[in-house]
UniProtKB/TrEMBL annotation:
PANTHER family: HYDROLASE, HALOACID DELAHOGENASE-RELATED (PTHR43316). This is HAD family hydrolase. It comes from Verrucosispora sioxanthis. GO terms for molecular function: hydrolase activity. Pfam families: Hydrolase.
């Protein structure tokens, strides 16, 4: 019997993109206050700096990746010495604006009537800093207590240990096909893909269910729970509302 639902955070429960953009706008404004050389630097430059450093640092803590990206941005205008002060400005703005999507808190309230709820993230969106304090029975953060990042099996082992539940009793909900769906299923959990933006799923990824809003979760999870004893093929191919179109 399924007992536990664990949620990814960034872009699943919290609307991270506007907060990051606002943080970068603060950085750019401060750079331009500090030197005329920064007038040539654009928001697109700052956004591209994250992508430029991410590949080499993918396994690192997110805060470390962001700091490396900001260092690259500041060097564009000879402002490398201001990294500490400008990093602090970025993170203050980013966390001040990182808030739940409109469907998040109502969905959690509804689900809590029946399920044990958990949070599990690769990022640094801690519940108490993102409007989610007190919402979860357990929280798992990569890089805390030696936990690796998703999609590592040990990440999901840590999730199940925190939940006090076997993998077969846990459903993971998230927006990233590789991390939140494939990683969770390989570790023996069920996986629901949240597709808020109408994106296409790689054809080799087969979530146990797909939703476009968190509002759909109570009924979708009830369906999954009712089918818990069926073989995976039957489970994945039954139910028009939750099947994957691949
Ligand atoms: Mg996410």
């Amino acid at each position: 019997m399924l007992t536990t639902v664990v949620f990814d955070v960034d872009e699943t429960l919290v609307d991270l993109r506007p907060a990051v953009t606002a943080g970068l706008e603060v950085v750019l404004a401060q750079m331009r206050r500090l030197t005329p050389a920064a007038v040539e630097v654009t928001l697109a430059d700052l956004e591209s700096d994250w992508g430029a450093v991410f590949g080499d640092l993918a396994a690192a803590p997110v805060a470390e990746i962001r700091r490396a990206a900001l260092a690259r941005s500041l060097e564009r205008a000879g402002l490398g010495a201001h990294l500490d002060e400008i990093s602090a400005m970025f993170f203050a703005r980013r966390f001040a604006l990182t808030r739940p999507f409109a469907d998040t808190l109502p969905a959690l309230a509804a689900l809590r009537q029946r399920w044990t709820l958990g949070l599990a993230t690769n990022g640094n969106s801690r519940a108490e800093r993102c409007g989610l304090a007190g919402e979860f029975a357990f929280e798992v953060y990569a890089h805390c207590d030696g936990v690796p990042k998703k999609p590592a099996p040990d990440f999901y082992a840590a999730v199940c240990a925190a939940a006090g539940a076997d993998p077969a009793k846990v459903v993971h909900v998230g927006d990233n096909p590789a991390h939140d769906v494939v990683g969770a299923q390989r570790a023996g959990l069920r996986a629901v893909w949240l597709n808020r933006r109408g994106e296409r799923l790689p054809t080799d990824v087969l979530p146990d269910a797909v939703v476009t809003t968190l509002t759909e979760l109570p009924s979708v999870l009830a369906d999954l729970s009712g089918e818990a004893d069926l073989p995976p093929f039957i489970r994945r191919c039954s139910g028009e509302t939750s099947r994957v179109d691949v």
